[in-house]
Amino acid sequence: MSETQKLRNIGPKSSAWLRQVGLHTREELADAGTVEAFMRVKRAGFKPTLNLLYAIEGALLDCHWQEVPDTRRKELVDAAEAAIAQLPPPRYKPAAGPVTTTVLAADTVPERPDEG
Q: Which of 21, 27, 50, 115 could cysteine-pair with 40, CB 3.0–4.6 Å?
C-alpha cells in the first residue's frame, strides 16, 4: 500500500493517479501543492473532478474534504480553472463539417465507353 493511499480522503483510484504522476508520499504531495497535484493528474490524461481537488486539500490539512472552508474551495477552484485555461488545446481534430451530396443532371453525366 502506498503512502498516498494512507492519506485521509485519498482512495485507491486517486492514490493510483497520484502515484502515476510521481506523487508517492505526503511530502511530495505537499511540495507540489494542491492545485499542482490536481493539474498533474489532469495533464496526464485522467478526468479528475473537483472532489479530487478538495480531497487533496483535505489530506494536506488532515481533515475531511467537506470540512475545507468554502472560501478556500473557491480559491482552489479559481486557481485550477486558471491553470486549466493555460493547457494547450486538445490534439484531436474536431468533427468534420456537414456532408453535402451533389447530384448531376442526367444530361451532364458522360457516357461510359461500355454503354452504347
A: 21
User: CATH: 1.10.10.10, 3.30.70.1150, 1.10.8.100, 1.10.150.20. Which one for 4-85?
Assistant: 1.10.150.20
Dist. CA 47–CA 70, nearest whole Å = 23
Q: Which residue has the higher pLDDT, 96 or 40?
A: 40
For the chain, the domains span 4-85
Share of the chain above pLDDT 70, in %: 78
**Which among 61, 55, 53, 59 has a CA at the least distance from the CA of 79?**
53
- Residue 109 in grid coordinates: 453525366
Alpha-carbon span 77 to 79, nearest angstrom: 5
- What is the Cα gyration radius of the chain? 26
Contacts of 17 (CB under 8 A, 6+ apart): 41, 44, 46, 48, 52
